[in-house]
Amino acid sequence: MASGSADNPLLRVLRGERLDPPPVWMMRQAGRYLPEYRALRQEKGGFLELVYDGNAAAEITLQPLRRFPQLDAAILFSDILIVPYALGQDLTFVAGEGPRLSPPLLGAPLDGLTAAPERLQPIYDTVAKVKAQLTPRKTLIGFAGAPWTVATYMIAGQGSRDQADSRALAYLDPTRFGRIIDAIADMTVDYLSGQIQAGAECVQLFDSWAGSLSPEQFERWVIAPTSRIVAAFKTRHPGIPVIGFPKGAGGKLPAYAEQTGIDAVGIDETVDPVWASRALPNGMPVQGNLDPLALLTGGEALGDAVQRVLDAFADRPHIFNLGHGIIKETPIAHVETLMQLVKGR
């Protein structure tokens, strides 16, 4: 058992214990809905500049815990595209448009890139800075993007509505696509391992575009590479929990939970939590799945939505979270209400 985990609510749940109230954290809890984050970003510059400024990134990671002491975890402030950056693509963030990777692999070979794993070291430095400032009861969560989702950005060079370029390439040239997936998986194992060595206590794999795949393609490009990452990671770090979050997986969630080797599964807001509790493996910890729009709305709608989630997972280990990232316009007062509703104080 990890150091301090006996008095660490989130780690206890990830290891199969049911707690009441459940531990809580929020995806994208460190970010632009917080005025203190917006002030720091204005001072420091662009997003990537913040990620690679260890002191700034550590400060942003810790900001939500200072404002909301009921939170049970800090999640590293970084981005899933650090892995393609370390694989040799150039990474920029365009204001109002999002990330850009170049050259896009739709028209360029993977072996034309020169890997730059040294680009991961500043992220490990941030992890160490955050860990040094956390109390034992607060978990530090590391993370990476899962191979399918990261590949969609690497191939198109940016985000897309339906991931059509990547889906087409996976059908037209599965051998080439498989090499891209394998390269991402190998780098991801190293990246997650480095985060653990620097002080993270568990990790989450974000597969934000998992919902765009057919069942057969989901098996090949989501379940299989995730299973490979988890197995390799656990060989290096036995006992360290892995949370898998295949957004949009829907009815494919049970297969994902059973076949990938993850310790806990995150579910998005489109999934019926009652169904999920019945369909997922007995005793597997579940994370989620409040609709971020309910949090944005607040009031009675928020209270009802929170209670539905708590009731649905009343009989299994549960980490309360959103079904996706917090919306930037969310009022601080609504988050304070959420903490009171979940924690009862």
Automatic annotation (TrEMBL):
Q: Report the transmembrane regions from the record.
A: none
Pathway per the UniProt entry: Porphyrin-containing compound metabolism; protoporphyrin-IX biosynthesis; coproporphyrinogen-III from 5-aminolevulinate: step 4/4
Record function comment: Catalyzes the decarboxylation of four acetate groups of uroporphyrinogen-III to yield coproporphyrinogen-III.
Checking Pfam families in the record gives: URO-D (PF01208)
- Give Gene Ontology CC terms: cytosol
Family per record: Belongs to the uroporphyrinogen decarboxylase family.
Q: Main EC class of this protein?
A: lyase
Instruction: State the name under which the record lists this protein.
Output: Uroporphyrinogen decarboxylase
Q: Which GO terms describe its biological process?
A: protoporphyrinogen IX biosynthetic process from glutamate
Alphabetical keyword list: Cytoplasm, Decarboxylase, Lyase, Porphyrin biosynthesis
Q: How does it assemble?
A: Homodimer.
